[in-house]
Amino acid sequence: MAWMGKGGARRRERVEALERPEYGWIWKPLLTLLVVYLVVTLALGIWWSRTPAPYSVEQVPMERRGDAGGEPAARGAVTVATLASIVETLYDKPGGYLRNDRLPPGLWLDNMPSWERGVLDQAKDLARALPSMNPSEVELLEEAVRGLSGDGLDWHRPATETHLAAAVAALDQQLMALGGMQAEGFVPGAGLRRWLADVGVRLDGLLLQLASSAGGHKLLRELAIDSEALPESPPWYRVDNVFFEARGTGWALVQMLEGVQRDQHDILEAAGVVEAWERLRAELAMTQRRLWSPVVMSGSGFGPFANHTLVMALHVSRARDLVEEIATRLAESAEQGVSGEDVRQAPASQPEVVDVERGARSEQGPASEEAPEQESAPQGSTEQESAPQGSTEQESASEEAAEQESASEESPEQEDQMQPGADEAETRQ
User: Fold this and answer.
1) Is the distance from CB of 330 to CB of 189 less than 8 angstroms?
2) How far is it, in rounded angstroms, from Cα 314 to Cα 211?
C-alpha cells in the first residue's frame, strides 16, 4: 500500500505545480479557448451543412437583369439565368464553397462538399450544352464552360471560387445579350438531346453507387441493375457522401428542368413530352425531402431503421428512365419534323398545273384572255399608288390625253376586229 501512497503523492504534486501562479495563467485560458473554438466550429458546421432553398425560376431572370427585367427577353434567357444562379449559390451560400477548404470546420464536413459536387457536375453538363443551343454567340458561353471546368478542389490562387465567379459573369453578359425583341435567342430544340444524354449518364453513375451502398438489398432487383456491374461498396463512413451527392444532383436538376421547360415549351409540347417532363421534375423533387435522421442509415426492409440510400436509389432510377424516354421521343419528333419539311419542299407539280390552266384558257378564245387583263389591273393600280404623289399626277394627266387620242384613232379598227370574231363565234356554235 506504500507504493500506492507514493503514486498519489506524485499526482498531487503535479496538480499543485499546475495550480501555481507561474503555470496556472497558461493552461486555463488555453483550455477555455479550445472549448470555445470547438463549440463555435460545431455550430458553424451545422449551419453550413444546411441545404440552400431552391430559387424561383420566374423571379431569377428579372432579378439578374436589373432595370431591364420588365422587358421581354429572347428564348434561352430563363435557362441562362437559372444556371447563373445555381453556380452563384456554390460560393455565395453560408460558408461559401467548402470542397477546397483546408481548415476547420470545412475540413471536417463531408455532406455539404458532396452536395456541392453533385451541383457542380450538373452545372458543367448544362454549360457544355449551351453553345450548341445558341451557336450564333459562343464566346461568352465557352468562357462559362472554361470557368466551370476542373475538379473544383483548387484552393490556391486562382481558387475555385474565382473560376466560378468568372463563369457567372460570362453568363450574366449572355443574359443581357438575350434581352429585347431584337435578340436572336436560342435555336428551338437545339442541344436538348445532348444535355439529356449527359444527365442520363450522371444519373446512371449515381444509381450504381447508391445501389452498391445499399448493402445488396433484395429490393435492388426492382432497379434492373446487374449485380456484377455494381462498383465496390464504399466504407460505412462514406455512404452519406454518395447520398448527399445525389441530393445535390436533384436540387440542381429540378431548377434546370423548369428553366429549360419555360424556354422550350413549344418544342416539348410538339414532341408530346410535357407530361413526362413534369413527372421527371416531381421524381427529382422527392429527393429533396427532409431527412429527419441525424445520420444516413442503411437499414433493411421494415426493420427499426430505414434505408435512406435504397429510397434515393429508387428515385434516381425512375428519373433516369424518364430522361431516356424523353430523349428518345425528342429524337423521334425531330426525325418526323425533318421528313415533314422534305414533303413540303417538293411543289414540283405546281408550275405544271399553272401552265396547263393557262394553255386551256388560251384555247377558249379572246374572251378568256380578257380575264387575266382584268386581274392584272389592280397590280397597275398598286404600282401607281407606290409611286410618289407628284410623279403620279403628271403621269396620269399625260396618260389620259394619250388614251383619248388612241381611243379616237383605234375605235374603227376595233369595230372591224370584233366583227370577224363574232362571225367565228357563230360558225363555232
Assistant:
1) yes
2) 9
- What DSSP character marks residue 300? -
> How far, in Å, CA of 29 to CA of 5, rounded?
32
Q: Is the dihedral of CA 207, 209, 213, 217 positive or negative?
A: positive
- Closest CA relative to residue 192, chosen from 333, 338, 315, 86: 333
Give yes or no for a contact between 45 and 109, defined as CB atoms under 8 angstroms apart.
Answer: yes
Is residue 307 a contact partner of residue 299, using CB atoms and an 8 Å limit? yes
Q: pLDDT tens-digit profile of 47-63?
A: 999 999 888 888 898 89
Q: Half-sphere exposure of 75 toward its Cβ, with a 13 Å CA cutoff?
A: 16
Q: What is the largest CA-CA distance in the chain?
A: 160
Percent of the residues in the chain that have a pLDDT greater than 90, as a whole number: 44
Q: Within its chain, how far is the Cα of 253 from the centroid? A: 9
pLDDT in tens, 326-372: 999 999 998 887 666 544 444 433 444 444 444 444 444 444 444 33
Q: How does DSSP classify residue 200?
A: H
Strands (E), 129-207: none
